[in-house]
Amino acid sequence: MKKGILLIHPPTAKACEAPGGPARLAGTLRRHGVAFRIWDANLEGQKRLMKMAAQSSADPQNPGTDAWTRRSARHLSANLSALRSGELYRNPDRYRRAVKDLSRLLATAARPFGVRLSLADYEDERLSPVRSADLLHSAATPEVNPFYPWFHARLPMLLAEFPVSHIGFSLNYLSQALTTFAMAGFLRRTFPGIRIVLGGGLVTSWMRRPGWKTPFEGLVDDLIAGPGEAPLLNLLGLDGDGRPDPPDIRAISPADYLSPGTILPYSASSGCWWRRCAFCPERAERNPYLPLPPEQVTTDLRILVRETKPALIHLLDNALSPSLLAALAADPPGAPWYGFTRILPCLADSKFCGKLRDSGCVMLKLGIESGDPGVLASLNKGIDVRTAAAALKSLKAAGISTYVYLLFGTPAETPAAAARTLAFTVEHAEEIGFLNLAIFNLPAYGPETREFASGEFYPGDLSLYRPFAHPQGWNRGEVRRFLEREFRRHPAVAAILRRDPPFFTSNHAPFFVPAS
Ligand code: SF4
User: CA nearest 488: which of 445, 443, 438, 447?
Assistant: First the structure.
């Protein structure tokens, strides 16, 4: 068979934009003349399940359906269209109702399979995505997966239209793992001659573990860690020239994502330029920092914007570098954009923030983590509370919204330090657009892990975390209680949390930022 590849973005992930990894691979595969197709099985699969749930709720033979599901079924196509129009985002209550209704249909379709499914997550009551035995079980019994009734018919159709020698899965989130393996098991059984390749962020994390040995022999032919362009070309018998390519989102079908216009995903780098924060997986996995030159990024973006006319650019970097921010401010891409960055001195400069806003920056995601100087120092974040406060003020004044990430229960945090984070948040509540609150997990590997690990592993040989006993007894239970009873309940914090778009969170947040 002539060499060719079908790249699959498997369920379940947020279906609001084209997947960044496959889009980038598409650019490289096209330039090298490889026969390829990219299939967004996530979006298609979710829509198919919603439709199946809607049809079965309308069936008079199915009297068990509740009023909420029947309402969701009636409004399915109206809700899908509304999510693709800007109008809905001007009415947060209507938006919330629409996404909850869509998610209700997914939950209804998956319930008979013992799976809790939503627009953003997949949780199996029996199988765990961090246990290789469970992933192999999912591969051996694909028919117990809620997406099986759809993919077991759809995959043979796709392969009849476009026969390939290789099938690659882009596996980035735990919520995709069990369905990826169900699809891989079905393919292995039905098309034994096709080679199965796994890559993506989650696979990279597995393979960077010390002493990694694949438990998937016989099912998965090739596993790829890190950027997939060169290894994928090699598997297809080609040599890459190492030149990075811009993403090709038009190669991905279907294009009707659940967003009001195209979102253009773009990575200006892999790894992280800072790479010093304690407990950071990027550091533990020793992922190298590989940036594109800022001039190439701004040129790529201008061309891509002209070609795809996006409603929004999503910069996927772990942390946008100061030089890239300066390049974007000097040479705007021509469409609104957002991305993750660190608290940087340039963000405390109101003139610079004004230029960023003029370049199209609508929102910055910021890992502030704590309002306590001692905690920040212990995490080696390289930021101080005063600069963070000044940055929040300057960004707000410039009309750039912020999605602030806070982390509780780190080894150096005490209840008093957590209270200081609450005080910081309240003091800057007017300047914070959105909030993400997380409880610390101890990574399974990394320079600091041995010092704090209180046991070998969480159940699951693929777990990325280890049990952790807080050195001062500020354990998960207490932290959770503090968050529920004090932090989230503070009126200033509660008002910020209410703005968070359910399920789509930061991916849809920029659409709620008022135009300045
Ligand atoms: S900025 Fe983010 S990605 Fe970079 S080292 Fe810190 S936590 Fe890791």
Answer: 438
Residue 457: pLDDT band with limits 50, 70, 90: low
Residues 464, 282: Cα–Cα separation, whole Å = 13
Is the CA virtual torsion 174, 176, 178, 181 positive or negative? Answer: negative
Q: Whose CA is nearest to atom 5 of ligand 1?
A: 275
Say if residues 338 and 357 touch (Cβ distance below 8 Å): no
CA distance 336 to 89: 16
Determine whether the shortest distance from the Cβ of 382 to ligand 1 is under 6 A: no
Q: How far is the CA of 321 from the centre of ligand 1 (A)?
A: 11
How many angstroms separate the CA atoms of 400 and 470, rounded? 37
Dist. CA 466–CA 190, nearest whole Å: 38
Burial string for 497-508 (b: 16+ CB within 10 Å, else e) reads: eeebbbbbebbb
Q: How far is the CA of 227 from the centre of ligand 1 (A)?
A: 18
User: What mean pLDDT value characterizes the chain?
Assistant: 94
pLDDT (0 to 100) of residue 192: 97
pLDDT mean over 88-107 = 97
Give pLDDT tens digits for 131-151.
999 999 999 999 999 999 999
For the question of whether the overall pTM of this predicted structure is more than 0.90, the answer is yes
Strand (E) or helix (H) holding 422: helix 415-427
Residue 414 sits at φ, ψ, to 5 deg, of -120, 170
pLDDT digits (tens, 9 = 90+) for 357-403: 999 999 999 999 999 999 999 999 999 999 999 999 999 999 999 99
The mean per-residue pLDDT over the stretch 313-336 comes to 98
Q: How far is the CA of 379 from the centre of ligand 1 (A)?
A: 10
Hey, which of 274, 383, 448 would you mutate to test ligand 1's pocket, going by the most ligand atoms within 8 Å of its Cβ?
274
Task: Give the burial string for 31-45 (b: 16+ CB within 10 Å, else e).
Answer: ebebebbbbbbbbbb
C-beta 365 within 6 A of ligand 1: no
